Amino acid sequence: MERELALMILSDYERNQTFLNIALNHAFQVQKKDFSKELVTALVYGTIQHRLMLEYQLEPSVKGKRIKLFERMVLLMSMYEHLYMNMPDYAIVNEAVRIVKKKRGRQAASFVNAILRNSFEHKRSLDDLKKEERLSIETSHPLWMVKMFIKQYGFKTCEKILHANNEVPLKSARVNTLKISREALLEKDHRFIASSHSEDCVFYQGGTIAESEAFKNGWVTIQDESSQLVGRFLSPDKGSRVLDMCCAPGSKTTHLSAIMDNTGSIDAYDLYAHKIHLVEDNAKRLGVTNLTTHVGDSTDIHCFEGEYDYILLDGPCSGLGVLARKPEIRYHDSNAMDEIILLQKKLLENAYTLCKNKGIIVYSTCTLNKKENEKQVEAFIKAHPDMHILEERTVLPYELHSDGFYMCRLRKD
Ligand SMILES: C[S@@+](CC[C@H](N)C(=O)[O-])C[C@H]1O[C@@H](n2cnc3c(N)ncnc32)[C@H](O)[C@@H]1O
């Protein structure tokens, strides 16, 4: 049951080039029978997370053969179970053959059977590969990304980042202090434990956070710990005027409201109407009342120029800090990054125009690509000598077992 469902999700992902969480949520919603969500999630995410290693191991047995999409996903998932799930080989092969026979017929099943038996018997060594290629296959990150991280962070740090990207992310949430204190939440539900690194963060040891009473009551919202650091990095004063230029789905906007205790005002923009609805739903659940949402292009907002006390620009980015949560991002086309860098530059330019004198801007991204982070800010302050860096921080994914994040606080004066 779980394996069939996981294969359906993997095939949907592969065919439609969708995001894994979207494919997963869709399948979970339509599935009526009882099944282990945890096992399906582990099979799907694990297969995509380790894809390069799985393909490397299968390559000698499949070389030159045309393989249909469904069979390809069966081979990858079975190889994942073989290498990473501690399952006996006969059980993996029997299940794969049963499923392929049911969906594709006898011939396809015997094809899969032969390939799996052959590749399970002959584990391929990585010893002859160059250092960078070996790291690329071993951790399943494309070679261009490995080279980029080595260049920007050095080999040792790069190695730690890549391994951290293959860990299972913690179930983190932010306590919504508009409704409850962290102490009171911990008292009410012992499945939450406090993080020692930041004041609003808790980790959940129960099932799904979104199904907990605490979530339904608006006491917590799902947010990674490093993302929570961004709101505190801006720390707008109570009663101040705040602009959030790229707000959806609203994790940081609603955090800013909590920090301001619902005082002052927040204008929150996003380019897409359907995403603004998510922000509004979150704001309602969390009891946020100082927020006005707008659908709009933040490179092109002209009202209230020079009037905002605080601006958050948590803009679009390549997402290379969240590869544990969204493993599929690592296989995206690297050329898209140049376009994003240009968009970030335009957004920063407009942040400058909208910020008042002595105002504060926090620029943040969930990527570790320095061209989108340090280099972007460097070019920005060069163009605007009245902007000064107050503090700059990069959180690497292995430091707090969180997403990787970059944040920079700047003042205009
Ligand atoms: C990293 S996400 C923001 C996450 C959000 N700050 C949070 O914490 O929930 C970037 C957002 O920027 C939005 N975006 C992209 N280009 C934009 C633009 N030109 N103007 C406004 N929003 C934009 C995207 O739709 C996306 O929702």
Can you offer a commentary on this structure?
With 413 residues, this protein is of the alpha/beta class. The chain folds into 3 domains: 2-121, N-utilizing Substance Protein B Homolog, Chain A (Orthogonal Bundle); 131-164, no CATH class; 226-412, Rossmann fold, CATH 3.40.50.150. Helix content is 50%, strand content 15%. It has 18 helices and 11 strands. A 7-stranded mixed beta sheet has the order 7-6-5-8-9-11-10, sandwiched between helices. Helix 1 crosses helix 3 and helix 3 (37-49) packs across helix 5. The longest helix is centred in the last third of the chain and has 19 residues, at 336-354. The mean pLDDT is 95. It binds S-adenosylmethionine. The site of S-adenosylmethionine has 18 residues, from helix 14 and strand 6.
Briefly say what this structure is.
This protein has 413 residues and is of the alpha/beta class. The chain has helices spanning 2-16, 20-30, 37-49, 51-62, 69-84, 89-104, 106-121, 131-139, 143-153, 155-164, 182-188, 213-216, 225-234, 251-259, 273-286, 336-354, 374-383, 397-400, and strands at 172-175, 192-194, 201-204, 220-222, 241-244, 265-270, 291-295, 308-314, 355-365, 387-395, 405-412. It is 50% helix and 15% strand.
